[in-house]
Design goal:
Radius of gyration: 17 Å
Low-confidence stretches: none
Strand order of the largest sheet: 1-2-3-5-4
Distance between the termini: 29 Å
Number of helices: 3
Shape: globular
Helix content: 25-40%
Mean pLDDT: 94
Length: 138
């Protein structure tokens, strides 16, 4: 997509702090990091979100996330990692090019990826289970 900033970054048109690149992905350090070492996995082809990316490529992205956070944990000495992938404006997606955030975490870092837990009611549970059972997911 010609006007997509992540397409331009993934394609090398816009300079980035690239920490990894292969035929399918470019992994860059985020310019607005939640914490030191916050990186983004960008596919080189444009897909707006997880709904659009082919299953095989989505699987490769998760395997790549594991490889990157394993290496970055050693480099940064962090205590943990958040792997975040937002789909749609309501979910916090601001750039509509599929990407995965890799956010290093340290105890007491005050980086927030939290919510206030609700309660799964019997009514909600039954409604969801009934409806999902009617959808083919294979």
């Amino acid at each position: 997509m010609s006007d997509c900033i992540f397409c331009k970054i993934a394609g090398g048109e816009i300079p980035s702090a690239t920490i990894y690149e292969d035929n399918d992905f470019r992994v860059i350090l985020d310019l607005g990091p939640a914490s030191k070492g916050h990186a983004l996995i960008l596919p080189k082809e444009h897909y707006a979100n997880l709904y659009e990316i082919p299953d095989e490529l989505a699987g490769k992205a998760i395997v790549l996330a594991k490889r990157i956070i394993t290496a970055m944990t050693e480099v940064l000495g962090c205590d943990g990692y958040n792997i975040v992938q937002n789909n749609g404006e309501a979910a916090g997606q601001t750039v509509f090019h599929f990407h995965i955030h890799l956010i290093p975490r340290n105890n007491e870092d005050h980086v927030g990826v939290t919510w206030t837990p609700g309660k799964l009611t019997e009514e909600d549970k039954n409604e969801i289970l009934e409806k999902i059972s009617k959808i083919q997911m294979n």
